[in-house]
Amino acid sequence: MTLRYIHAADLHLDSPFTGIRAAAPENVAQTLYSATFDSYRNIIDLCISERVDALLVAGDIYDGADRSLRAQQAFIDGLRSLDAAGIRSFVCHGNHDPLDGWEARLAYPDGCHRFGSEFAAVPIFPDEPERALVYGISYPTRDVYDNLVSQLGEVDESAFTIGLLHANVGGNTDHALYAPCTLDDLAQSGIDYWALGHVHTRQVLRERTPTVVYPGNPQGRHPNETGARGVYLVEVDDTGNVGLEFRPTDTVRWERINIDISALETEQDLLNEIDDAMQNLLDGAEGRSVVVRMTLTGRGEVNQFLRQAGAAEQLLASINDQWAERLPFVWCERIEDETAAAIDRDALRSGEDFLAEVLRTADQIREDPETLQDGLAELYQHRRFRQHLANLTEAEIAALLDEAEALAVNLLAEDDR
Ligand SMILES: [Mn+2]
To answer: Given Cys at both, which of 115, 125, 144, 383 links 136, Cβ 3.0 to 4.6 Å?
Structure first.
């Protein structure tokens, strides 16, 4: 084995969770407040229990350039634990924590290397500098629009090399275009493993020669950062082959769920359906707590309740009374009601308008599937359409028909909602 390390990025320690925390019950607010710190502590514990050689942190350690003293102390405490366990740490800074931000004069442990504003190569094993090298660079200031990879220069080909960088690869439009570069730039750099930061959703951009990885942030921080979050445990064997293993380190998980009311007849049915959904979230969260945003969709009887003023708030309170005050908790942070009233299909079908005709045609096709060809005669002239349809099973065609009918009803039915 040449090397084992943990690759983390975008810790955003001391993220304020403003707004969300204000709306949350006390226990949830507390958990959110410490979530980024707890996740970082999980990373440190993982490094120690896995007995890795090094921890790499690819920027955005802190959430704000004027990082809090508390965040800085917590970060250094973790590095000290690693140092005491003989594990080295390598850190670069990104747009959220550039070198020109305020920083307390605190003592970093000897085993930690923080990269400056120019690339430097640092051995992971000081006694065996030819075994593995980390090439890293930090943002001198927040707005870095240069391609930093072009500043890398010659790379030592005899060692296993890691590039530690906070950058936007390939113009990812979900994130600011800091330190832009292409995957090709990285592929041609001579580096064996690019340990990237900046993009918060984990992505393996390239499996090998070089391996290029965004681990994502180790703790989700808002409703768009859903699912398990963590770090990569990386193993490099004697031939230089890289093995990647994702390890979750989050303490609170963000999820979005959708509940379709069309099959629900009573408010009790709705509550039961939501209960099942909450239990499913807990079961899938590997012991973590969950913050969920729920969307209600579809046409059905319980829309009568949901359209009353304050109904969503009442429902929210009822869910959270039951699920938010336990540990692990599920806290429903918002309900978005997109439901509509149930329709009287028979009445619509017997009408004189276009929708009535659509419904009657749909029923006709259900009775005699052959009539589908008559209705879609022009489409059947297209070779690709015929091929596509020939590949569908009867059940798939029936499902498509149901979907088309629902769409037509939504678009055409008069709705006093
Ligand atoms: Mn970030």
So the answer is: 115
